[in-house]
DNA sequence: ACCGAAACGAGAGCACTGCTCTTGCTTTCT
DNA sequence: AGAAAGCAAGAGCAGTGCTCTCGTTTCGGT
């Protein structure tokens, strides 16, 4: 969404008008689909409705996306990139002031992710809700999906450099260290097994909290869910990144 | 699923054969739908396929469930009851040995919930995945949904009696105490605001971990996700129920 | 024991979906 | 300039949830 205009202009220079209108139409299809998702949920994108809105016949859509799943994949990639970019910025904003403020960086990232999820609940659900049945995300989705996790891993890396240890020190199960080493190699980070495991626990907790709030599990229970989430984020940060004077277990 | 045979027999005594075959057919429809959900996910139950399998015509199904959503609701209630019953049993098994072993009780409940989710991933997703769009769970689903949370609340209640405080003590946001008091009144429990808030955070974390594992977010990253979850459960328990000798923050 | 009322299954049908295939037309490449 | 590729349109297929009507079967009150 952020870059299709550039794509279109680029295409116009390199190739002819056909390529340009193709890029524009592709972007329009995606835009309408995104709106459909926002309104009716990820499961309810409707190719025929998109075609109708564009004044086309439904079969024409298939020139641009081979199937409904392919359209979904494109939107998935965009959503991962949006979330990745937003959290990268949130982290950078704190890190450029004080890169060692790992608690602040985590809270900023969590808050940014939450704000995005609240603003675009159905896009969030597209990423972290029930996977569409029979649909397995192709390999081109993994790179954008990694962006967000990379942000967290960099914070963990910095925390490791500072000698932080989680409040509740995990007992690393056998076999897991090899998996974690592979992650370290791939991401060029160096946090300890304990820190990474705690980080992953907090990562799942973060998305659990967002999902619960989004799915309305706290409806009629907690009024100010935003305030509750803010406190959850602070607690999570403290659980992985205690001040060094604190006792741990 | 656990009780439809009894329902059928009961109906046979109280009313005639028509009521019995109705109860049996209702149960059969639900059983087939449950199998469909297990195979193809919650979004893909198919009334016509159910009718075909029963040798009926599709319109006949509507004598038993007024719509697809109503069928879904019935399955939702069953799933909530299954999860509630399983976790109640897991808690009771530990509690009858030592009711004050709140950490053990929590781990038992978490483990049981995870085992159920792994065995019936799509049923779990029916409860905690993306809500079906345009579908708002009617009021008859809230009672069974409360069963599981009640288990957690009773553990928190016991922990409060023992004087436990979470490792990271939450700063209770303004407004939230009123909400929590309402929960205490409704459930006849008496845990402190801090303990309840920490409990809710851990509750969301628990489901976040299960959802992440179920959705395959750790695929190609962590091999032994079961072991990882077991450790997560232990960490979560420790975060809310530290041993009283431990320092807290 | 009977008879009106209610419940039921079958069947046809409606509006809708994703998707395919063919048919002409237009842009692009050589 | 002509072949090749890209394109929109239209018809059509198989499938869905759901509605309505029509005989038949069962139930409940008299």
UniProtKB/TrEMBL annotation, chains A, B:
InterPro entries: Homeodomain-like_sf, HTH-type_TetR-like_transc_reg, HTH_TetR, MT1864/Rv1816-like_C, Tet_transcr_reg_TetR-rel_C_sf. Residues 23-83 form the HTH tetR-type domain. GO terms for molecular function: DNA-binding transcription factor activity; transcription cis-regulatory region binding. The keyword Lipid biosynthesis does not apply. Keywords: DNA-binding, Transcription, Transcription regulation. This is Unannotated protein. It comes from freshwater metagenome.
């Amino acid at each position: 969404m952020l870059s299709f205009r550039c794509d279109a202009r680029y295409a116009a220079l390199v190739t002819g008008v056909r390529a340009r209108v193709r890029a524009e139409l592709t972007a329009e299809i995606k835009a309408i689909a995104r709106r459909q998702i926002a309104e009716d949920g990820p499961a309810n994108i409707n190719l025929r409705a998109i075609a109708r809105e564009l004044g086309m016949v439904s079969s024409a859509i298939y020139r641009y996306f081979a199937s409904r799943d392919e359209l979904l994949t494109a939107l998935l990639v965009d959503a991962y990139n949006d979330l990745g970019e937003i959290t990268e910025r949130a982290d950078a904003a704190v890190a450029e002031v004080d890169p060692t403020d790992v608690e602040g960086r985590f809270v900023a990232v969590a808050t940014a992710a939450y704000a995005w999820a609240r603003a675009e609940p159905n896009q969030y659900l597209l990423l972290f809700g029930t996977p569409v049945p029979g649909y397995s995300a192709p390999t081109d989705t993994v790179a954008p999906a990694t962006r967000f996790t990379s942000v967290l891993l960099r914070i963990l890396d910095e925390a490791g450099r500072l000698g932080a240890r989680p409040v509740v020190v995990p007992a690393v199960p056998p076999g897991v260290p090899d998996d974690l080493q592979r992650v370290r190699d791939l991401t060029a980070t160096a946090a300890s097994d304990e820190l990474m495991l705690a980080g992953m626990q907090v990562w799942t907790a973060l998305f659990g909290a967002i999902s619960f709030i989004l799915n309305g599990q706290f409806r009629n229970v907690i009024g100010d869910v935003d305030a509750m989430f803010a406190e959850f984020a602070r607690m999570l940060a403290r659980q992985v990144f205690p001040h060094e004077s604190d006792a741990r277990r």
